[in-house]
Structures are given as C-alpha cells and as structure tokens.
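Submission checklist for the structure archive. All mandatory fields must be present; incomplete records are returned to the submitter.

[x] Identifier: CRISPR-associated helicase, Cas3 family
[x] Organism: Alicyclobacillus tolerans
[x] Residue count: 749
[x] Sequence attached
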Amino acid sequence: MDFYAHTREDGQYQKLKDHLEGVATLSMRYAEVFGVGYLGYLAGILHDIGKYSHIFQKRIRGEHVRVDHSTAGAQWIVKSETVRDYLGTTHLDQYLARLLAHVISGHHGGLKNHGTVAEEGTLLNRLMKKDIPSWSSAWEEVEVVKQAFDTEKNALVQRWNREYPAWSYQFLGRMLYSCLVDADSVDTRNYCNPVENTMSKRQAPSIAVLQMRFRSFMSEKLKHAADTRINQLRQQILSACERQAKLSPRMFALTVPTGGGKTLSSLAFALEHAHLYDKRRIIYVIPFTSIIEQNAQQFREALGPDAVLEHHSNFNYDEYQENYDQDEIRRLKLNTENWDAPVVVTTSVQFFESLFANKRSKCRKLHNIVNSVIILDEAQSIPRGYMKPCLHALEELIVSYRCSVVLCTATQPSWAGLGIQVTEIMDYPSPKELVEAFKRVEVHVYGCNTEIIPDQQIVEWMKDSLQVLCIVNTRRHSKLLFDQLKERGLEGVYHLSGRLCAKHRSTILNEVRERLYMKLPCRLVSTQLIEAGVDIDFPVVLRAYAGLDSIAQAAGRCNREGHDKIGIVRVFFPEQHGMPSRGWIKETATEAQNTIEYCKQPPLALSSIQKYFERIHGISDGRMEQVTDSEGIMSLLKSKNRNFEIPYQDIADRFMFIEENMQAVVVPYDPVAEHLIKLLAEAHYPLSILRQLQAYVVQIYQHELIEYQRQNLLKNVEGVLVLTDKSYYHQQSGLLQATELTEIETLIF
C-alpha cells in the first residue's frame, strides 16, 4: 500500500515518507542554528508518523473520518527504550523526550499544558491515550536515525538560567515547536503550491548589500542637511553607534534624547553589528502602530523595498503593491508567516506575545529570531506587569539564541535595579552630555494633587500663545478644553484623540503642520496619542501631570529643532475630570510628582528619570518581584524547576499585552470609507478591504458598545461593526460619546 501525507488540487499525492524526510531536514536545519539540530530532526521525522494508520489513509483518499495522527509520534518518543536508544539515560534525556512530545502532539492544535491524565487534551492525557490507530507500517518505510548528541546537550544545559531552569527548558520547547511547524508548512507549500515555493525562494539582499545602500542613503541625506547644532549632535550620535557596533553581542542601551535621530542611528548600529558578527537579520520592535508605518517607510527609503518586511495589523500589502514590484511584495507577504527577511519591522505586541504563545501561527516565526539584532524602540513602554518575563525572554535570546538586543529610549529605566546588565552605546557624547546639549526647553511645574489648575487657566495659557499644544490624560478633558477654545472664537483650534479614526487624525496633523510652517495661529488639544512618535514641533507645550516618561515625550514635541528661542513646557495638575481617580495614569502622575518633589533635580534630568522608574518598578520599596511579574509567569515557572511540567496554555493565557476590553467600530468618515464598507458586504475575499478599513476604526469601551447597540447605531457587516448614522461622527471631535463617563485614552499598540 502507498502511504500519502497530502493531496493537491491537481489530484497528485505527496508520499508520506517524502514529507517526513523533507520536514525532518528543514526542522533540523532550523534547529542547528541554536545547537539542537538532532532534536529538530526527531520532531520532524516523527510529527506525522501517525498518518501511517490505515484509517488516516482512508481520510487522505476522501473518506470523511476523524483521526488523531499527531499523538503517535509523541507516545513513541517518550517510551523508555526510545529515550535510551535515541537520547540517553539521564533525567535530562527524559525531559527532552517529553519536550519533543509537547512539540509533536501540538503541531496542529498548539502547545498544551502538561496537565494530568484526567484533563482532556493535555500532554499527559494524550500520552496515556489508548485508542490510537495502529501505525506500525511506518517502519517499512521510515528509519529514525541515531546520532551522538552528548556535546550539544552539555552545551545546552550550560546556557540555561540557573535560577529558572524550567524557564530555559520551556523556551527551548517553543523554539523547537517553531522549527517543526515552519518546516511542516514550508514542505507542504513546496508540494502543494510550487508557484509560491519558487516566489518565496527569491534571494533577499544580504546584510553587506544593505550596509552599502544605507551608507549611500546617509551620505546623500547628510549632504543636504543644514549645518545646525542639532544636526551636528545627530551626526555624533550616528558615529558613536557605528563605532560601538564592534562590541561583542550582549544587551545594549541606546540613550538618545527625543529628536536625536535614534531611529536611523540604531539602524546603523544594527547593520554594522550584524555584518561584524554574522547575524542573519535585524528585527525592529516598535510599541505603537501609530509610528510603525512611518519608521518602516524610512527603512524602505534607506534600504530598499525588497529588504523590509512590515508585520502588523494595519499594513495593507495590496495597497503597497501598487507602488512596487508585485512579485517582490508577494514574496514579502508570504514571509510575514515566518519572518524570513533581512529587516523585520513589527510591534511589541506581535514580538513579545509570540515569545510566550502556544499557537502554531504565532510561534512559527520564532526560530527566525535566532541570531538576530533586536532593536527595542521606546523600551520603557514594556507594560510594567510583564517587564520581568519580557526582560528574561530578551536575556534568553542573547545567552542561548545568539542575539544582540538594543534597548532604545530617551528615558531609560534602572535596568540594573531590574537585574539586567546593559552596555550603553553612547560613550561620547555620553547620555548626560546629550541631555545638556539637547536642552531645548524649560519645564515649569504648576499645581499638585492638593492644588489643581482649573480649565479656565489652561484656556488662558492657550489663548495667550499663538502656537501651542496641550496634552491631557482623558478623552473627556480634551473635548471639554476644545469646546471652550471654540467658544472663545479663537483661530486655528484643533482636537486629537482616539475618538478620531487614524485617517482623520492624519488629515488634522497635516493641517496643523501646515499652519505651524506658515506661522499661523495653531492651538491643538490632544490626548497622549500624539506622544507616540508624532513628528511635530510647537514653541509651547502644556502637559497634564503624568509619568515622567510621558512628560519627556511631550517635551519632545516642543522646540524639536533647537531654535534659538528656548521652548516652554508647562506641566499642570488638572481638574478631577482630567485626572483619573485610580489606575495607571493616576499612579504614574503621583510618582512623577513625588520624584520631582524629593529628587530636587530638573524633571527631565537622567537622575530624575531613573529615580522615577525605581519607584514605578518597585525597586525602591522592595515590590519589584511583585509588580514586574503581575501575572505570576516567572513564579509559575520557578515552581516547575523540579518536575519541568510546563503549562504552555496557561502561560499564553496569562501573557496578554493588551486587555481586550475595547471594541473596534468602523466609521464612514469619507467617501473612501463608505465605498470600502459597500465592498466588504459583497467581497468573497475581504482581507484586503479589512486592512484598508483599519484607517477608519475607532476603539470604544464595552459599556459604550452596549449603549450604541441599544440606540441601533451599529450594524454588522461581515463580522465588522459599522456606524450607521454619520451624524454621530463629528468632523472636528470624532465619534460622539455614548455616555458622559470619563474614559482614559490609551496609546494604540
């Protein structure tokens, strides 16, 4: 009897033996990069061994029968004689066999908890399963090769975290899982879709080629740059990054003030470092979708569109395809599945949630992170409750997976206090010298929690300034101030918040930039979303009390180019509707106030910033372990140090960067949005339309959703909620509030 793995549209069958050997070869190649090629081979050769059952062969030939084909290989690898013959006789060998069982049994449904025999679907339940169809015919075709593995095992254990060996063990399991599921997907695609196979193999430019392109781009850019003090400092930062790239792989910090050109300078470091240490790719991790597109476009201009893979929810390949070579974009689109590109630009959510995930689709890319340079932009923005597991993940990537990591920010936390050793890239000029050299603003603090600054005073400040930006903490406060400014009849008044869709915000920002350039009156009230990398320059900025990192970001929107006249930043304690009574904004504002009062240093001095983060991260009062691992992920794994019974499902469930308490609503902001909504209702393949509609989304809270639905203001179009009454979307302030409850504006990840 012939045994098959897959069938394709033309009726041809892929032989099962060919598939197992193909996957084993690829999986071994992927795993060799981090020193465990043999484990990758075993996972690959065994993953579909259960397809040798006669019942599965009936299924492949068209019969509608359900059959478990992924448990067989898992059960076989943990047998005592198998472990002895193929891995060894130590406890470590038994643990590695169990890890392979996790990987093999979960290659379709995901990595599960170790669990118990009684818990349906857990690893132990699967390993004790009795009703597995016979697959003994496999041994007529398949030979599982034995290979000496002791040297690799010893090296593996030497790299493991001494305090958290179970952490390193489960991380290895996820990496092996990535190798297997990507190899499985690639081999299946190679057989079932030869055209995509050929397209995906088109050669991407090497790091050396990208270096040449980058140098040419920067040479041209610097040639046309004005000879200003700020540009001279940016050149010094660039030179320091290129000089320090020769340092051996490790955890780096790049401390550069806002407006210092750290995006291109960090890329220069990464390219030089990757070239010197033979790194495979550069992964640029950005916290907010509101800035990822502008950074990715900057990289494309510097490196070429064939080098940059953009992977996040807002990216529309079909729209992008109109401007570049279609085959090249199709190749990049395929490569989003496994990050097989020289430069990857992605979000913090996509990057970190993948490192803690248990699903095939999220984990597939992980093995391509190995031997990379990872640049973490705005590193301080890692959510506090996940800071410890995220930093441990970055350390694991450095120690065990040959990565270098760069923590970029103008406001560096106390990494040493968090237990992380970093090397600062800026040797000359030093971070302290840069803060002095980039001093473009004076920060004045008004009020405190016992002395509020009324809205009337804020409106007076804005009336008295020809061009001024005011950043507040809540959507409601921004709308109230905007309405008061409009009532005064002032010229050039604008409003930005998450009540406006991205397309609308972009239109307003373009108008604002035009008025700033023309020296016309311009008064903008915004929530903190404008702090997320928006390139804009006001002579005066007002900021409601918030964390010092937020105040620093606000100051970065003031006198950005370092004009002769110093910029003015006023930090004020707002009325009750401008300061939530509890939660993250309230806590960070309180700690910022305490730091300013007790530190006796300027609010944006490096020492002030570090003291602030020591308070926020619980370093100064002994709460660090608790507040930086609020979901207990590290403590959960520490409890598994003796038995290595890894709860992969629980870890994935606990690690969620964004609480999913918001609902996306598409607003018919312009004729383009209205046309896309009509197309969505008729589309057979709506993915392209959905991506384009991302620009017209407003996030609302669950209680608002209930109110909007009660008033019949929403309709469901192919699973997407669409606003039905355009009068509820205002052309100046966006989607109207369904209730008068204060809503905290959150940065969009």
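[x] Structure attached
Curator remark: The mean pLDDT is 90. Residues 439-605 form a domain with the Rossmann fold fold (CATH 3.40.50.300).
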